[in-house]
Each structure stands twice: as C-alpha cells, then as structure tokens.
Write a structure and sequence with these properties.
The structure is a homodimer of 522-residue chains. With 522 residues, chain A is of the alpha+beta class. Helix content of chain A is 33%, strand content 23%. The first copy, chain A, has 14 helices and 18 strands. The first copy, chain A, has an 8-stranded mixed β-sheet, with helices on both faces. Chain A has a 5-stranded mixed beta barrel with strand order 3-4-5-7-6. In chain A, helix 6 (196-218) packs across helix 9 and helix 6 packs across helix 14 (494-502). Chain A is elongated, with a radius of gyration of 29 Å. At the A-B interface, strand 3, strand 6, helix 5, helix 6 and strand 8 of A face strand 3, strand 6, helix 5, helix 6 and strand 8 of B. Chains A, B: It is found in: Cytoplasm. Chains A, B: Pfam families: tRNA-synt_2. Chains A, B: This is Probable aspartate--tRNA ligase, cytoplasmic.
C-alpha cells in the first residue's frame, strides 16, 4: 500500500515538474538576464534582511495596509506563470494564513524587469521568501484576506532545492489514504510540519499543555522535574529501556510515579510534572510510542480521594472546553483532513462517573453479546473499553467519562484499597482508583496511593513483589523515614489526549517527533 | 571529612534519643492508658480525615482565627515534654512557616486526657500530623505568627518510624560543612526536601522556569517537545549515552539543537522547549550532572542576530529581577545556610555586552598576570571565565554580562560567520554567536545559525565532519528540502541558573533529583 502510494506520488511529482518547466520556458523564452534595470531588487540572500518598509505578518494584514508597501515573510506555496511579464504566487505561513501575490514587469518606480519576473517564477516551492510589496484589495482574490500583494522589489529567498511538487503534502493529506502513509511524510520532517494540518495539530497540542499547567497553578500546584535516568526498573522490568551507566546499569523512567510521591513525602502539597516517559514495548500500532509526554499530578488528600478525581476531571474538562472555544479554526483544519465526529462533553454538573462494577453491568446488559459475561473483578480489555465507550455515548451523550473503584486485581501495589466498600465479584477488594475515557479509549489512570509504610509493604508482598528488590527498597524507605500525608494523583498522556480528542487515525500524528520501535529519526 | 561528620551526627542522634526517652518516661511515669476519657480523640489514622472545623494552612493563620478551632496539617518538627499534663510541639510546613502547639490535660470539653498528652509527646519528629486545635495569640510565642495552637482533640498522625534526631537536617545545614556532606542528605530524600533551604530552592527554581515560559509566550514563542531518544550522536559522539533499541542503537539527546532548528524549518516562527538533556561525562564536580533541565529557544531573525541576543538577555534579566522581587524570603532562607553576595544586575539600558576580542583585551590588561597573553582567536578556559567575571564585576558592577562575536574556532559548525566583521587574532573569522555569564560562570550559549544548505555543508566539511555521517546527513537534508529562514537561538541550563544566581556550593543542590556518574537514586 505504502509502496504504490509512493510510486504514484513520484510519478505525479515528475509530471508536475515537467509541466512547470515547460510553462516557465514558454513564458520566458524571449527574456534575457542581460541589462537588468531591477538587478539590485532581487536575489538569493541566505542571511538576514535589513529594510525600511513595515514588516507585517500575513495573518495581521488588514484594510489599513491597502496601497501601502509592506514586508512579508512566508513560504512559497505555489506559483503560476501568466506571461513573460507577469506571474502569480501563493504565499503561506502557519496553518490558516495565505495570500496571493502578483509580480508584473513595470518601468515605473519601483522598476520590475522581465528577468526579475522570470527569476521570481523560478523559485522552488517551499522556499522561504521575504518580499517587499504593495497591498491591493482584490474583491475576487482567492486569498483568505481578499487582498493581493504586488511584489515590487527585493524578494529575498532561501532556496529549497530538493522539493516535492507544489502542494504535495497538503494534497496528499486531503485524501483518505491510511495513516501509515501519512507517516511516511515524517521522512521529510520540514514539509510534514509545514502542512496546515500539522501546524493546526501542533497549536492544539499547545492548548492542551498550557491550560493543564495554568489550571493546576491556579490551584496551588507546583511544577517539578522528575528524573529520566533511574537506578532501577521500579515499576516492573518488562518494558523498560536499559543502558550502560559508568559501569552500572541505568533505566529510563516509565512514569514519574515514585518521584511524584517523593515530592509529597518531601513536603510539597500539590505537584505536577510535564515531561518525557519511555516504554520499550514492541507495539507497532497507531496507539503506541516508545517515548511520549506525560502530564502528571499528585496532591495531598484531605477528606476524600475524590478531591483528586475532581481536580483531574476538572482540568480535562477545562482543556476540552478550551479547545472548543479557542481552537475552532484549527479543529476545522484537522477535520477537513481527518474527519471525525464532534467530541461530546457532559454538561456542567452532569459528569458521568461509573463505578467499575456499574460499568461492567452496563457492558453486560447493554453492550455487545460477546461481553455478556464480563466479571466485576477482572480488568477491562481494550475491546471492552471501546464497547463501553459506545454504550456510554449513546446513553449519556458524552465522549468523556470516569470509571472509578477498580478492583485491586487490576491496579498496582500502591493503589489504596477502600476498606469501607463491599468487595466485588469473587470477593475482591475495590480501590480508590479510577480511569478516565475519551472517545472510547483510556486517557488517564489515577487514584489514591497508600501512604503508610506498613500497609504499603504488605501490599507489595501481596502482589508478589520483593520489598527488598532494587527500586522498591528505596521507595519503601521514603515512607519509613517520614510520615507521609494521605495523597493521590494521576497521569495523562499528552499525545493521546490530542489524538483521541481530534479522532486522529494515529497518535503519532499528535507528537512532534514520534518514536516507535521502527522510528528514531529525524 | 564526611565520615567524621556522619559519626558526630550519629552520636548526637543517640544522645538526643536517650534524653528524649528519659524525659518522656519521667513526665509520664504515673500515667496509665486505662480508662481514657479522650480515647476517641486521637490516634494513628493513615488514611484521610473527615472533620467539621475549618482547615487552615499554617501560612494563612491570622488574627481572625484567634479563639477559633481550626484544623492544621503539618510535619512535627520537634516536641518538648513539660510535665505529665503538658507538652509543646513545633509544627512546620514549607520553607518559612512554623507554629507552636500546646497539648494540656483538661477535664472540660473537649476533654484532653493524660494518656493523650503522653501519646502526642511520643510522636516521632517528621511525622505528618493533622490537629484540631484552638488558636491563641501569645505575644511572647517563639513562632513566627505570635500564635499558638492548643491541641484540643483528634490529632491524627502518619508516623515516621525511622527518623534522624529532630532538627537534624536543618541544624546540619546551618553549619558550614562542605557541599559534599550536604549531598549525603540526598540518601534521605524526603528529609532533604523538607528542609527549609531545599523548599526555598525548589520555589526559586519554579520562579526561573515560569517567567522563562511566560516572557517567551508573550512574545509569540510556542512550546514544543524535542525527543530524548535519537538515532545518532549528532553533536559529537564523546559524551553521549547509548542504549540498545530493538536491535539497533539509540542515543540520549545532548541538546535539542537540531530539533529546534527543524521546528523553524517546519514553519514555527519562534519556539522554546523545557526538558531534560543528557551528558555522559565522567565529571564528578559540583558543576556537572549527567541529566539536567535545558531551557532552549530558537527564533526567526529579521534584520539582525542581535534580535536573538536581546530576547535571551531580556528573559534572563526578567527572571533575575523577578527572583529579587518575588522571592526575597526564599533567597534569605538560602543565604542563611549558603552565604553569598547579592547578585548584581546592570541598570536598565546599561547592560554589559563585550565582544570576545574586547573581553580578551580586558583580561590581558586588567586580569591576573597569568592571562596577560590570552589570544583573541582561542576559546576561553574556565579559569579565564572566572577571572573575566571578576574584572567585569569590579569595573561595571554587574554579575551578569554578554560576550559576543566568538571566533569560529570556538563554536560548532552551525554557527553563522559574520562576513562583514574583520577577522581577529591570527586571521580567524568571528561568528554571530555569544555566551552569557552569571557570577563568573557561563550560563548560556547562543547565536545565529547557518540557514543555507550549501553554506552549512561547507562549514561541516571545514570542521572535519563527514556530511554523510549519521545524524548530520538527516540534518542537512532538512535544509535542502525547504528554504529555511534566517534564525538563531540559545540554550540555558536551568539548574545552573538557579545555582549560580544563589551562589550555591553545588549545582546538585538546585536539582530535584541530581544525577551524577555516582548517583542514580533515589
């Protein structure tokens, strides 16, 4: 599939190039570069550019600029030769901003010569250009601003010399070829990033991260940086990267879990971290990466672990509502390429929170027949999660909900058991731990942690882990060394939040430089 | 040195423990735990705590709380038995907030029994306690607030059971023993972090990171996340961590340099990143770590590379002035333990920017005799940097300054050569690249980068690097694939900014979990 797409694309590229060359040759057949009255007005200047006219971002151009001369910096999206005296340019910057330019030979000041027209029309697509130009209002112009730039003089250019045919990325992404093909774009990272859809995804990603931070800071959370290099594969050795470390062995952190708890033990009441986490899973799926960005928080609990659940639910709702408010254009740009249903949010006060037992009951009673016998004391599988999401969506009209009170069998040793709750299933205790779901997929795990050293050691043993093993020993020592307040927290994968919210076909499209077992570059 | 300090500390601990036990035994000799009228009012409850009274942070207690009953959560810093009927507690939270508590037997409601007094006095230091208490204003009280809590009922506790003698960390840090001994505290990470000085350093660290981000965001910079796992040791293979990666080899990024440039090539005008970078240096000094937090930015240049220099200078001055304004208490807490001179900043408009040649001239003419022959075309050594900082401080009254226009011999291949400047020294070209200094040490490297593929390849070759080598090939390909605007940037080490600003004896004290060739834990 990839193979044939690549071949088609190459053929199209060659054809476009040939057509372009023919157009250029025909239009400029009689032009010579001798005796050029505008020779000082254009050329390739790879460095900086000093000038007199006002510099304006394309997105900021407005009617006040009409008939004025401005400097605009942009990428050349496309150009079209009209005659030896005239050509059209499409200039683009960012996701949603482009403008049309005209270059036309003129003997009046500022002089534009035919060689200059020829030179401008010869600029490769995706070159970076800075042009000095007069602004016209053109009612019929195809540009978004209804405005056209007349390129007057001094276009400076940093050439691209190895470029796919104009519009390649954008065109390809408007098709519905599968995500795997999209990802071959990553091999040309600059082009991939310049596509409007990737610019929009990057902007939305920022609008997840920023409000995560500001919402928490407003509530007294303090940011900290957990280490990536750690001395023990503390959370199970299976999927951990190992590396030689000055004669010893080091590991890459799979989560900041222990370090968040150390911060609480160390006297910080509420903390959060945003940083890379690593999983050495051989999962070549659209849901997995070997490095991703974790959004994590941990906080003291005062009266109930639901304080933690509510902060996490609050910050995610804040993020999702923020995207809908602030990123409508960007979401539309993404949907045009990767169609998806709008992301349904619960009305304020109508958040959906099921217990694990309620969720399993819902699945048994209203889910597909294959899940008619799911048990209350066994963890959900990915297909079960998907089915549950669909039942909840049709029943409660939301793509975002919480499943709380997981059985202890489905949680790690540090999950706090709820001693007051009745056991479920075959007599299994429930925990004060929960998962959050977005568009049928888990995006967050969290809950209350054990804060008492004796209780913690007992649970470590009950899970079959040796309390004296590397990493665990040091973890337990912290709880023995000081009294640790009751606390809880949760972790979110930034890439997944972006990908699932937008309904992207792959989480890799939400990352800046996705890392998979097969991809370490660029 | 460490050995003897540790021994002294152990002896002191044993002595303190024995004294404490004797006091407790004497004071409570006649108390039995039978027939306790206040039995329901206290005890160890490792979980959460539901209550009626208002919960108040120690730092928020004020005169409006006098004669009211409140809930306070804190660490037990210390306690002192007065009699079988009475004892004193010191409760602490954070860097600067502590309050004294009294527990006194009483038969009036709320009943406080002698067994309860005994129990409270038996709580280990550094236990986490939640107490319900009435607030008294005590003019002579030693607490910062002039206020005392009368512990009435329901102190709940998460015990610490393996605790150094009360006040150990704080006392030790008030001494002037060397930083190496300080770092042995890291083996008891929770105690280390609870010390007021580490709480203060952590708060100041936040006040470096936060304004870095907000200053840049206000100026149109967008955050992104560069990868840690990379496919090639792109910036010189010497000090790079290597790891097995699904049958291939991966490396840990030594800086986000190439990725910042890819963002610019990919159409982002101004970007910044905050994240971990890794150096596999066997440097067991107070200046080095194997993992640290990089603050990096990259931006399009319009008229001159000085735009980059000015943004970097602006953000650092903004950070330093912000610390002086917002963190006076925290800085005082740090200085009490690690004395340092105030950090001198230039007056606005009087920033000190020397060219490299000017700096070397200053060193030759006004520096120590050993530097009387330093050359304009050779990089500065660390001792030269220190000497230069001292000359600049006495001449210009600032601890913060810029050295610009480094010779190309002292910069990497991507540094942009200033074609308009006269060569220095033995005919060496100068670059549009600079270092920033704080308290005699380099804290930032930056400058304009080459944005033209042809020029870049020539410089790569000139530096003796193979343009076809792993990492370099992919880097060059980006500049060939699109036209890249002129751009520049710089990188700051967060840990060093904090450490040098505060004059800490070791950069390790500025990190949350310092990593050195000898330390991977906790």
């Amino acid at each position: 599939m990839e193979e044939s797409t690549a071949t088609t694309s190459k053929k199209a590229a060659k054809k476009a190039e040939a057509k372009r060359a023919a157009e250029l040759a025909a239009a400029t057949a009689n032009v010579t570069l001798q005796d050029d009255a505008a020779a000082e007005s254009y050329g390739a200047r790879p460095a900086v550019f000093s000038h007199g006219a006002e510099e304006v971002d394309i997105c900021s151009l407005n009617e006040s600029h009409v008939d004025k001369t401005v400097i605009v910096r942009a990428w050349l999206q496309n150009s079209r030769v009209q005659s030896a005296k005239m050509g059209f340019l499409e200039l683009r910057k960012g996701a949603n901003w482009s403008i049309q330019g005209i270059v036309m030979a003129s003997e009046e000041e500022p002089v534009v010569s035919r060689p200059m027209v020829k030179w401008v029309m010869g600029i490769n697509p995706e070159s970076f250009v800075a042009v000095e130009a007069k602004c016209y209002l053109v009612a019929s112009a195809p540009s978004m601003l209804g405005m056209t730039l007349a390129v007057a003089n001094k276009p400076i250019v940093n050439f691209s010399d190895d470029v796919p045919p104009a519009g390649n990325v954008v065109e390809a992404e408007k098709s519905t070829i599968p995500a795997a093909s999209m990802l071959t774009h990553l091999d040309n990272i600059a082009m991939h990033k310049r596509s409007p859809v990737q610019q929009a995804i990057a902007d939305i990603r920022i609008e997840v991260k920023k409000p995560f931070r500001s919402y928490l800071e407003e509530r007294g959370f303090k940011e900290f940086e957990p280490p990536c290099l750690i001395g023990a594969a503390s959370e199970g050795g299976g999927n951990v990267f190992r590396l030689p470390y000055f004669g010893e062995e080091a590991f890459l952190a799979q989560s900041p879990q222990f370090y968040k708890q150390f911060e609480i033990a160390g006297g910080r009441e509420r903390v959060f971290s945003i940083g890379p986490v690593f999983r050495a899973e051989i999962s070549n799926t659209a849901r997995h990466m070997t490095e991703f960005t974790g959004l994590d928080l941990e906080m003291e609990v005062r009266e109930s672990y639901t304080e933690v659940r509510d902060v996490l639910e609050g910050v995610l709702l804040h993020i999702f509502r923020g995207i809908q408010e602030r990123c409508a254009n960007e979401v539309a740009t993404v949907r045009a390429v990767y169609p998806s249903e709008p992301f349904l949010l619960p009305e304020p006060g109508k958040e959906v929170r099921l217990t694990f037992a309620e969720a399993q009951k819902l699945l048994r009673e209203e889910g597909p027949a294959e899940f008619a016998n799911v048990r209350d004391d066994e963890d959900m599988s990915t297909p079960q999660e998907k089915a549950l999401g669909e039942v909840v969506r049709s029943k409660y009209n939301t793509d975002f909900f919480v499943v709380d009170k997981f059985p202890e069998t489905a949680r790690p040793f540090y999950a706090k058991i709820d001693e007051t709750a009745a056991p479920i299933g075959d007599g299994v205790s429930v925990t004060n731990a929960f998962d959050f779901f977005a568009r049928n997929q888990e995006i967050l795990s969290g809950g209350q942690r054990i804060n008492d050293a004796v209780e913690l050691e007992a649970r470590i043993r009950a899970k079959g882990v040796d309390p004296e093993s590397a990493g665990i020993k040091e973890y337990l020592a912290v709880f023995r060394s000081v009294g640790v307040p009751p606390h809880g927290g949760g972790g979110i994968g930034l890439d997944r939040v972006v990908a699932w919210y937008l309904g992207l076909p792959s989480v890799h499209l939400a990352a800046y430089y996705p890392r998979t077992p097969k991809r370490l570059s660029p």
